[in-house]
Amino acid sequence: MTTAEHPSGPPAPPFAGGPGRVRPILPPSPAKNNRRRGGDGLWPWLFIAPLVLGIAVFYLWPIVQTVATSFTETGPFGGSTFSGIENYVELFTDPQLYRSLGNTLLYTAIVMLGIPIAVYLASLLNLPGLRFASLYRVLFFLPYVAMPTAVAMVWRLIFNGDFGLLNYGLGFLGIDGPYWISTPVFAMVAVAIVGLWSSLGFSLIVLAAGLKNIPPELYEAAELDGATRWGQFRFITVPLLSPSVFFVTIVTVISSFQLFDLLYAILGSSNPVLPKSMSLVYFFYREGFVNNDKGFAAAIAMVILVIIGIVTLLQFRFQKKWVQSD
Amino acid sequence: MVMAFPFVWQIIMSLSTNAEVQSVAPVFWPAELQWSNYVEVFERLPFLGQLQNSVIITVVRTLAQILFCTLAGYAFARMRFRGRSVLLALVLSILMVPSQVYLLSQYQIVQGLGLLDSLGGLVLPGLFSAFGTYLMRTAFLAMPAELEEAARLDGANPFQIFWRIMLPLARPTMSVLAITTVLWSWNELLWPLVVTTYSDRMPLSAGLATLIGDRTTDYPVVMAASLLAMAPVLLLFILLQRRVIDGLASSGLK
């Protein structure tokens, strides 16, 4: 079979690109084979129709609509009129945006402290001969799968300024603990401690899988060459684990920027401290569904989209470097 | 152990009296175990109705996602048709979009359909999942083509090939999808909060959240209620822990 006879390809022009450019002759792939026999006909459409319709109606169309809404003003009777970039101007001059962004960053920073802790714990879990390793895995993972609003209840008790366990413990150290949940910065710190607690298990599992993928021969060879424990950590563990660390970092940043559940559940919806302890998503929720300013809320959603987009782009940039932890 | 302590403390508090919970020097063990707190959960809160809502929402979404995502995932992985790559790219593009971007309009659609404060509205957008489609497509992509070829020569139509041959092979991935959907649906807060206003129409996640800030809160009853609300999913997790952990870790998505 020559190129010219290939049913789906045009005949190669004789001198188009010299002999080097002749199309390679490949064995027909099952796909093409399939198409020649009439393809799959209507079948694929039946298979994808429910999902694609659902995604189009409930996800794709709403995305388009939110972009449009962000350029409109919601009228008093629910109608909306085009208002250009007014929402964005209003948003970027609103100090609440920067406060919410700052709070979200503070939360993200504290939750990120969990990553070095997770690296340390993962290396402990990976030690040969550790007993109850799977029990530890379960214990660390439990907070990750527990309902945020349900665990928030007990954390509220622990953080209680009058009879909370945390301040009781701090009292022994001679520290007069604050009213965590009703003091602006401390409220966010409290929420972030819970966030760290609940996300630690996920990081730990991914990192432990990453550690398992490092061939033990490397360590044996290094030991023969007289490398110290620290040297092994520095020259084997760090470079080979860095893809997993990077992956965990990205996931943590993305989910931290979506902070809502824990904040809402720990602080409550009528807490006077909220404006000063709001996350970006809480700001969005308040404007969109409490104050009912859809256009303004849509503009906030766009800001969140751009931030997550930048983080995702970074992830793609480095994707070659991180290995899936299958 | 720091990780498990909040759960233990919650159990202890759920068995105490309100006075014991609020005593300034913590009472580490209640004078008398107050099992009646658990009975009061059902008497004082619309707990049973919310539990029922949570169960229905979670079961319906999980079944729907498994059905829709395996069908579409299979077609995207194994069938040839015009526009396939464009449609696939459109579906997967949602994975990168934070939920706030579609939430406003989803609310308006559900409102337009007259489904606010109803199970239909609660369940609706979560029936479809781009992530599930991605997950199932990956599973089907990894399967050997010989099986399909053999079945095709035997005269099986595409649906029979999918149903009898490929689907059984995809079972492990389907269980990962089921587990992630159950977890996500049971614990989800923002959507129920937005769609429902009456506490008896809410699922447990939102119902519990409404208890916060109530000054007259009966702490032990609230502790008991939140333990009961978490229990089904935590039990499921403990029973299937290896599969859940490996599944979530390898799917690499929240």
TrEMBL record, chain A:
Transmembrane segment boundaries: 42-61, 105-127, 139-159, 179-209, 244-267, 296-316
Domain called ABC transmembrane type-1: residue spans: 100-315
PROSITE patterns in alphabetical order: ABC_TM1
InterPro entries: ABC_transporter_permease, MetI-like, MetI-like_sf
Chain intervals for the UniProt region annotation (Disordered): 1-36
Pfam families: BPD_transp_1 (PF00528)
UniProt similarity note: Belongs to the binding-protein-dependent transport system permease family.
Protein name as it appears in the record: Sugar ABC transporter permease
Species the sequence originates in: Arthrobacter gengyunqii
Lineage, broadest ranks: Bacteria, Bacillati, Actinomycetota, Actinomycetes, Micrococcales
From TrEMBL, chain B:
Location in the cell: Cell membrane
Keyword Transport annotated: yes
Domain ABC transmembrane type-1 as annotated: residue spans: 51-240
Topological relation to the membrane, as annotated: Multi-pass membrane protein
UniProt keyword annotation of Cell membrane present: yes
A single GO cellular-component term on record: plasma membrane
Signal sequence bounds: none
Domain of life: Bacteria
Spans traversing the lipid bilayer: 55-77, 86-107, 119-140, 161-186, 221-240
Keywords on record: Cell membrane, Membrane, Transmembrane, Transmembrane helix, Transport
Example of a GO biological process term: transmembrane transport
SUPFAM superfamilies: MetI-like
Similarity comment: Belongs to the binding-protein-dependent transport system permease family.
PANTHER family: ABC TRANSPORTER PERMEASE PROTEIN MG189-RELATED, ABC TRANSPORTER PERMEASE PROTEIN MG189-RELATED-RELATED
Name the UniProt record assigns to this protein: Carbohydrate ABC transporter permease
Organism: Arthrobacter gengyunqii
